[in-house]
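Q: What does the assembled structure look like for these inputs?
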Amino acid sequence: MSTVTMIYAGVFYIAAFLLVAGLAYKIFDYSRTPAPLVIPTTPAPTTRTGVVYRMAKEVVVFESLFKSNKWIWVFGWLFHFGLFLVLARHLRYFTQPVWFWVDIVQPFGKYASIMMVLGLAGLLARRFVVDRVRYISTPSDYLMLALLLAIGASGMMMTFVAHTDIVALKEFFMGLMYLDIQPLPQDPVLLVHLALVASLMVIFPISKLLHAPGVFFSPTRNQVDNPREHRHVAAWAARLDQNG
Amino acid sequence: MAAAEFDIPEIKDDIEIPKLREGVMSHVKSFPAPKAVQDFMGYPHELGEDWKERAIDKMGDLLGKYRSLKVFLDACVHCGACTDKCHYYLGTSDPKNMPVARQDLMRQVYRRYFTTAGKLFPKLVGAKDLTREILDDWYSYYHQCSECRRCSVFCPYGIDTAEITMAGREILNHVGIGQKYSNEILGKVQKIGNNLGLPGPALEDTLEGLEEDIEADTGVPVKMPIDVKGAEVLLVTPSADFFSEPHVESLIGYAKVFHAAGINWTLSSHASEAGNFGLFNGNYETMRKVAMRIRDAALELGVKRIVVGECGHAWRVAYSFWNTLTGIGYGGNDPFSIELQKQLDPAYPQPQHICELTNDLIKSGKIKVDPSQNDDLVVTYHDSCNVARASRMGTEPGGQFTIPRELIKSVANNFHNMADDTIYESTFCCGGGGGLLTDDLMEVRVKGALPRVTALNNVVKEYQVNFMATICAICKAQFTKVLPKYGFDMSMVGGVHQLVSKAIKLDVPPQAD
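A:
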């Protein structure tokens, strides 16, 4: 087994652990932190079902962002939907036999990478061009977009320009999953792509990428507007009732 | 101690997004609260040696108590969607008045002390140690936010800058820099019963005077009862309604509605204030203490219904928080809630907004109105931020927009909305909400009113609108002060019940007392 294979195997075990453990901790932390007051941004749904629908619209079509700014919406949605299809397509490297719907998504996923990279490029351009967005951008905001762009570009290189040994790559990842390490193809583009993906996995739970789980815990979006009919009291606040 | 001179912005045809002008509003400092005021609130009145530790400790405490704060500080991706949504940014062009930048004043410190990335790579993620300069920025810019929630409508994660501002003010109070205006009012409401510091006997005199005025004006003996045990309805209204213009015209309107409908009602000297500045300061316990006055008055007077007058943030606290804070509402099955619930009449929502009550009475024909009495007026309606984005009326989402408009249209024949992107959930704050309605913040107030004034100017030009109705005591006070600076007549602002008051028919009351 080559050193490169051993390093990448180790890196992916660590990255996967940090991603899962970090996200699990954050989700646990959000869910245990009380929301003592009813603060949905109104008009808000008056039923739980309505809230599910509102949240679905936020997550799938970015409703609030659509109301807000059409440019950010176009670029943001292209990127996220592109990324979703690309990720779905990548499931073929982690499943055997490949799930039927992944096969259906496969051809779309291939071209979705173009959507993804276009969206990212648009978002990056806004950080340079719009004075208000430039003012609020930190180095990490640029780097995050650069990282995602590099992941997309290196992936597209392998899809459209120089194919890597995809059969061997799948054996490597299936091997990782079943604790039976197989050699990783030593293709420089692939190695760059994988290294960047591993860094993204590590960064995810300690960065602004927490907006992904965060949106589901946002009280202004996930609360039901029914404060006159239901008494909503957090545990720490309920103690005040006993003390009069 | 007059505030610095400043230029009144020019009203353009459209609301324009200005180019950034860094630091142009950094000189704004609301007067800090003196020792006596801070003492009463239980806060220090000056920075101690350990202020930094106290600030960080308090931030940690709030992060553990409020999921909103924790999620909002984590989730922002700096997308920029909110950057052109705040009326204070649009009016001042100071970038720290962009919602995300206002949040970042706290987020930079949060990242430094509470996140892995900020501890390891502060420069990379814009994390900063807490310094006196940052604290001064907090004081300045957390008092240039009216907590109106317009940004939260447009944020893809619903991040509400109001929650950050409230936390910022709470931390500032804990380290010893409180705001004189809000904290003084919180003292008055707890010691005397209302924000204006109007004692019970003075209030009774005022009400008697108003009764005489109404009778002289209409020939009908409309009463304004106070502290009447066994009344059906307790009306809780902002104390400005008792003697500020144009507020008092709405109070007269409520009294006429109760009279015409034959509803036995009362005010309370103990709870002679609907406003609750505890909301603005972000302190749950203060807000609860202030709200408990209403519960106490309701229990003491034995009323069956609680109705709230025209006040924006008060309606937010009443509608969204009273049930939580004081058990005024339904659904609680603890002894604290049940004690009050068994007294309240389940046929009505608790609390009920005066607009809900009046609109129902007109629709069901229990009171009669003559809209032609308002034919001299061309009316528009300003949605107050806390009513629009933090509460509801009626049973359907959006009732807070439709019910006041239905009511206006039933008592006035000429009505026109302002532009769509300036009303309903996109409404612009009057510029004086959230604890900013003080002369030491006049520059912020005038400039922050620019988007609303621009939209108003357009309907004045297009439809000859000469009256802007609103249901918020702060909006009324702010506009009467600020509109003249833009060349409008201050009397063009007033309450919805000011219109009701003119249109209501009192000659044939449905029943005698």
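DSSP finds twelve helices and no strands in chain A.
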